[in-house]
UniProtKB/TrEMBL annotation:
<protein>
    <recommendedName>
        <fullName>Diguanylate cyclase (GGDEF)-like protein</fullName>
    </recommendedName>
</protein>
<feature type="domain" description="EAL">
    <location>
        <begin position="23"/>
        <end position="277"/>
    </location>
</feature>
């Protein structure tokens, strides 16, 4: 009796059924949000302890639910990437981030760049570099005013091709950063071949500083390694003064985190007061 079976399944696996339905609802919701162009791009600064100024901004995607509450990107970004829909958002994403970069670089004292998160599908797409160059040109944006953040996972899946694309980007003057560094098990032999400027240490390793001996050891060795490789380390998720002091004492000078500022819409970064944010 099928009807009875169904009843049983929903009794024994209520959680599973719920989250499946939620997933389907989110997919439908995302599809509509793409059609209606309802995504937003917010910006969070990275500050430099040496200059005491904002050095770059990371562009972070935002989407609201029916009640107007923000949906966590950790919920919708994986879906956008798995479905390939991220490609539909790319023109909007690149245009918005690059026009913001063009504006901010001219207004931030000492200049700045905007870091854009790029997934593997985008990076490995044949037309990617061409599209990027066209938008930079249309927005009167210097290549060095943007940085592309790529995760370690992308290197593991297509190492040679990724190195080739990153090399081409660097030759054009576009900056490159490895995101979520330390979470993706990338081999050191591999890291040394990467033409990147910044390593972003994941918040996971920053959260318990300076109270976790393993995290201290990890952050310390990433710092020393990056020095030898000519890369700069950005610490993500810096929330306390104590974390910042420890990082500074261990020669990590670039910080992104709630201690300095939360992500916010571009408009809120356009005042002299906001851009004068200093350590
Ligand atoms: P991510 O690239 O590692 O971005 C950093 C995340 O850390 C952001 O989360 C940011 O809001 C959060 N964060 C920064 N400082 C602090 C802090 O002090 N405390 C805490 N608790 N969190 C902090 P967010 O905005 O929720 O984004 C989550 C992830 O979604 C990003 O992680 C990135 O992987 C992805 N994402 C966001 N926007 C885009 C996008 O435009 N394209 C792609 N492909 N992925 C994106
Ligand atoms: Ca990022
Ligand atoms: Ca990150
Ligand atoms: Ca992260």
């Amino acid at each position: 009796n099928i009807k009875g079976m169904r009843g049983q399944v929903s009794v024994f696996e209520p959680h599973f059924a719920d989250s499946n339905r939620e997933q389907l609802n989110l997919e439908e919701y995302l599809k509509r949000a793409i059609e209606e162009a309802r995504f937003e791009l917010w910006y969070q600064p990275v500050v430099n302890a040496v200059s005491g100024r904002i050095e770059q901004f990371e562009a972070l995607m935002r989407l609201r639910d029916e009640q107007g509450e923000l949906i966590s990107p950790d919920r919708f970004i994986p879906l956008l990437e798995e479905s390939g829909w991220i490609m539909l958002l790319e023109p909007w994403l690149l245009r918005s981030a690059i026009s913001a970069a063009s504006l901010l670089a001219r207004r931030v004292p000492g200049g700045s760049c905007v870091a854009i998160n790029i997934c593997g599908q985008q990076l490995l797409d044949n037309g990617f570099i061409e599209r990027l160059l066209r938008i930079l040109d249309e927005s009167a944006c210097e290549p060095s005013w943007i940085s592309l953040e790529v995760t370690e996972r992308q290197f593991l899946e297509h190492p040679e091709r990724v190195i080739q694309v990153l090399q081409a980007l660097r030759e054009m003057g576009i900056r490159v950063a490895v995101d979520d560094f330390g979470t993706g098990y990338s081999s050191l032999a591999y890291v040394k071949r990467l033409p990147v400027e910044h390593l972003k240490i994941d918040r996971e390793f920053i959260r318990e500083l300076p109270h976790s001996e393993p995290d201290k050891a990890i952050v310390n060795s990433v710092g020393r390694m990056s020095e030898g490789l000519g890369m700069h380390v950005i610490a993500e998720g810096v929330e306390t003064q104590e974390q910042m002091e420890w990082l500074k004492a261990h020669k990590v000078f670039l910080y992104q985190g709630y201690l300095f500022a939360r992500p916010a819409p571009l408009e809120s970064w356009l005042s002299d007061e906001a851009l004068g944010l200093v350590l």
